[in-house]
Write a structure and sequence with these properties.
Length: 206
């Protein structure tokens, strides 16, 4: 009975809430928020690497007491300190805003079929053209896989993905007859075609 009681007391201090971090290093400033006795530690003193989003970094009492001794703090700590990133779900609206920055074309139609649901750290959402799976775009109903990310903590990337349909009315100039090299072009040689789901063709003037 006594041993069971001692074992329970030894793990009880670890049942703490975590402090949120917003940098890739845990510094004295963060530790002081969790353990006020450590306010003497310089705020920019680096104590550990931050965990990845979705993970936690726990300082156990023995580790905290070693840090206290290192900075000449006489206090003895009995509780643990925990740190993690604040995460939030990424909404479809946020994804569409980021995607439209990549394809800023009039008449663009973007539809998200499905997307990643993992909560992400706060940062800039980006979906570069290089993240799109290669395709001919021949069928407007075809969905494409698009890789993006959240840029956080000064340049780190948290992966996102979405399956999307993209279409836009784009003009195409086509020749209605064979044009010899060096021949001056006139409107009778060319037609302009606008295409999204179906084509519309009309002559153009030059």
């Amino acid at each position: 009975m006594i041993r069971a009681g001692l074992f329970f007391l030894s793990i009880a201090p670890l049942a703490l809430g975590c402090e949120y971090i917003a940098a890739d290093r845990i510094t004295g400033a963060y530790l002081a928020k969790s353990v006020p006795e450590f306010g003497q530690i310089p705020s920019d003193a680096v104590l550990a690497y931050a965990p990845g989003p979705g993970s936690k970094r726990v300082f156990r009492p023995d580790e905290l007491n070693r840090i206290a001794a290192r900075f000449g703090i006489p206090s003895k700590v009995s509780n643990a300190a925990c740190f993690e990133w604040e995460l939030h779900p990424v909404s479809e609206e946020q994804l569409l805003v980021a995607m439209r920055k990549t394809f800023d074309a009039p008449g663009l139609k973007l539809e998200i079929v499905r997307h990643s649901r993992t909560p992400a750290p706060v940062g800039e959402i980006v979906f570069p053209k290089s993240g799109l799976a290669a395709t001919s775009f021949s069928d407007p109903g075809t969905s494409l896989f698009w890789r993006g990310s959240v840029i956080y903590a000064g340049g780190k990337k948290f992966d996102l993905w979405a399956q999307v349909r993209i279409s836009a009315a784009m003009p195409r100039v086509i020749a209605v007859r064979t044009i010899a090299p060096g021949l001056l072009l006139w409107s009778i040689f060319l037609w302009q075609r606008h295409r999204r789901n179906r084509s519309k063709t009309r002559p153009i003037g030059i």
